[in-house]
Design a protein that fits this description.
This protein is an all-beta fold. The chain contains no helices and 14 strands.
Length: 138
């Protein structure tokens, strides 16, 4: 939230941390949607948790609002993301991520700590490299 504007500088009071933040007014843009600052759902689920919605559907919590979470599911594609609005009662359980693995485009297993190179993805993502990390990593 912008609390003051003076000589091309804006003073912000962010939801996620305490204290003021000073930025140039020219660097600000209006957000299409605003964050709620809420990071837990019912005290059981947190932002970025891997959860099971039904027997065939799992996903990662990408946003939490007052009584619901937005979950990006395993039914998503790059062209058609499947984001579901779930109440706490819609989520069966949190999945443990310390022993999970994934598969690449060639069905090879990718484990935590493996080095990967993106072969497709959002604009600018192709060719990026990194190490697969557990929940909370980048």
């Amino acid at each position: 939230m912008v609390v003051a504007v003076n000589d091309g500088m804006c003073i912000l009071l962010p939801d996620s941390r305490q204290g003021e933040l000073k930025v140039f007014a020219k660097d600000l843009t209006e957000a299409a949607e605003s964050g709620t600052g809420i990071e837990t759902l019912g005290g059981k689920y947190e932002l970025h948790d891997l959860v099971q919605i039904d027997a065939n559907t799992a996903g990662v919590i990408i946003g939490i609002e007052k009584e619901v979470a937005r979950v990006l599911t395993n039914n998503s594609t790059m062209q058609n993301p499947d984001v579901r609005i779930c109440r706490e009662s819609d989520i069966i359980r949190k999945l443990q991520t310390n022993r999970t693995s994934a598969q690449d485009a060639n069905n090879a297993v990718i484990n935590t700590g493996d080095y990967v190179i993106l072969s497709e993805g959002a604009t600018g993502a192709k060719g990026q490299q990194g190490v697969k990390k557990e929940k909370g990593g980048t």
